[in-house]
Design goal:
The chain is built from 15 helices and 8 strands. With about 500 residues, it is α+β, with helices and mostly antiparallel strands. It folds into 2 domains: about 250 residues, no CATH class; about 190 residues, Nucleotide cyclase, GGDEF domain (Alpha-Beta Plaits, 2-Layer Sandwich), CATH 3.30.70.1230. Strand 2 and strand 3 form a beta hairpin. The protein is rod-shaped, with a radius of gyration of 40 Å. The two termini are about 65 Å apart.
Length: about 500
Amino acid sequence: MTPPATDWRALERRFYLAMALPFAIDLVITTIVATVAGVPAILPRNLIFGAVFLLAGLHLAARWLYAPIRKALAAGAPVSAFERDLTTLPLRSAAAAGLAYLVIVSLRYLPTMLFGTTLLFGPVYAQIVPTWTDAGLTTLVSGCFMFLTVYFIVSDFLERLCARIFAATGENLNLFWGRFDLKFGTALVFSSLAPLLLVGGDVLSYSGDRLVSEIAVDLAASIFGLVALVYWATTTMARPLARLEEGMTRAAAGDLTVRLPVTSNEEIGALTARFNFMVEGLRERERIRETFGKYVSPSVAGELLRDAPDGHLDGRTAEATLMFTDIQGFTTLSERMAPADVIRLLNEYLPRVVEPIQRHGGVVNGFIGDGLFASFNMPLAADGHAARAVAAARDIQKALADFRTHDGHVLVTRIGINTGAVVGGTIGAGERLSYTLLGDAVNAAARLEALNKEHGTRILVSEATADAAGTAHDFVPVGEATLRGRSGTLRIFTLRE
């Protein structure tokens, strides 16, 4: 939602205030110069020049520089339509301020130096007229100082403006042409060289008391100027880095809703944009995992997402324990229930079956009507998988002991368990894929579940499962059974009540 126009006007006024700061900075510097040099009479004239060029002149320049941004915001234009105006605003503003300051400093020196008169500044100013070397270096350093300082002041404003645009529209910068190392490297080099250049110019130009006075003036002005420059430079750098650190902390803690404003056109901005892209990818991945996990086991979904980014898991053979469950007489029961009641009953029943399976390290591979197919040790590794499967079966029966339908009907659940070698992987065609387990051991487990009806039992396990489970459970022999599709007989067991 676009914020009220007054919000944008308030930000525009903040930009004009930022462009007025050079006047305040110059006033402090000239006050330092006048005080240390002992010529306070130059302050009124300096104030006039500052008001004309730095207040009035830069205000007009600011209105011109901000005009395309103002129009775009008022029209609700997308960020891409005025992105270049945004990203170049600090550089263009700095150029205007640097040029204005070069003019001011030149006008303070040149009239007397060129004409040998006290034109413009009166006789008092003639007392501190510099040499050409000192004047040239001072003018150059002053212009560069104002350029860099205003660049970082407006960069700080741009950071706030982009954050506000992001909060209002959700749009971010996507144009990254600046260089972090060049920006802050230039500030660092200038901070190191500027005082040396000024003092060097004094040494080459003066001697005696005048030399001492000029060095004192330049050092005092340099200290203030460099403190101002360092403050704005570090502020511009620290805020987006702090925001990025906070975003990373939130994302690491699991908050994938975080999205940050991109507020600069160099590496920090590009890094923030990549962070947003990364979190969006993680959010999409989590959404896929959650959605996929509703249809298959979360462990299967996790393995697919980790080891098979294209959705295909190659066939893998391993020993596993397989479990099939089914509700006795459910077909007859469902015929006398409304469809909605059938679904509601299953949604109440199945969680009581699934929870013990997952608690003991099993994986629910699929629901088959009123029953389900689960596996232990495939695809999720589980030591002692046979004992785990039997323990899960016992806990399922305990969980269902007091479960009744709405009319008081008892649901009898039959469970068949078998252990053997299986092949696991994804099968399907095109975009329709499914993770499945194949092998004789799977078929045997399904047959054992059905045999419960013949033997009047609720849990039947194969000899392979009983042997693999060892002494962890008390098995009772039931006899031998011939399973359809298999030659020979199979010894089967149940659990002692």
